[in-house]
User: Fold this.
Amino acid sequence: MSYSPQPARRRRLGMVARQAKPQTVQKIVIVNPDQDCSEVKEQIFAQHGRIIKEMPLVNGFLCEFPVQELARLQTLAEHPAVLAMEDDALLQIMCFFRRPLAPGPAQPAQPAQPAQTTGWGVARIHAPEAWKDATGRGVKVGVLDTGIDLDHPDLKENIKGGVNILESAASPDDDNGHGSHVAGIIAAVDNGIGVVGVAPRASLYAIKAFDANGSGKVSDVITGLEWAVKNGMQVVNMSFGSPQDSTALRTAITNAVQQGVVMVVAAGNEGKNDSVMYPARYPQVIAVSATNKNDQMASFSSRGPQIGIAAPGEEIYSTYKNGGYKTASGTSMATPHVTGTIALMLEKHTGAPADVIKAVKGAAEKLPGLGPTEQGAGLVNAPGTVRNW
Ligand code: CA
Assistant:
């Protein structure tokens, strides 16, 4: 006979509560731009749906429905006012940290904050030569990522704000390390310790939409982009991607670009031809591939006709969570070299995102031996970009 506790015991075991909680499914619903949301909202409620949050940037909602309604949701998807209904898909940050080396002979203790070095990537794109003209001062740079280590001695002077999309009451501090690494490549402070960023005076804003494991939902990325638009970010670094297209994400990016935000996106770490990820595949952004110290394609870098530009992305040393430093590789690391370069340029000039992207591409250094699906316009060049406008 199977075990079946009496009702009182079931309650004690918490089984009633678990059984009573209905199973739900979350969907993003996007309404056609020229149509009113109210009729679609009524349809959502008619399917016993609940609106978790509104997403004005895309004229849409994140909704939750009981699973038993799933079969009937097709009616909602086919409603003439609905542009798209899709799952709230996951995006992933795109880097690998160097595996710990086998323990060797004992090393002398390292000082907590080592003397400042200039990363090979920052040097390769000739960023220091641009600093007499521009350091990114006053330019608002959004880092849409896992957060930033807010009290890092090599970053905090440049961190001017941020938001935690995952938990609005919490700070956007970095519980993964990826966002801090990206932030340091863009704008680590020129202060004699650690590293120095491409634009060492740029203003960093931590937009935390990715969790401690480096995963983020499309709906949270959209809310992060909404925050970026509302708070006047001039350029947003997006070192993440997914193999899956999303009407919701494409709409958010189109609308944010229309409102003047430049989007710099990692191409992906698929290591093969025609493997550029989303959102790097969208034409309004600049997609970044990764090179190594020998000016070759990094073996892991995605390639394809959507590549806009190349940047150093292999064995990049930068800031990390908890006040640390780490070496990492990925198109995640290439992307902030381009974002920093754009921050330098935006200190001197302003323009529509398409013109900004055109100027960065126009100043790129063609690398011999690499095709356009690998390097796009070429290797990003910081002083050339500042002068080239
Ligand atoms: Ca420093």
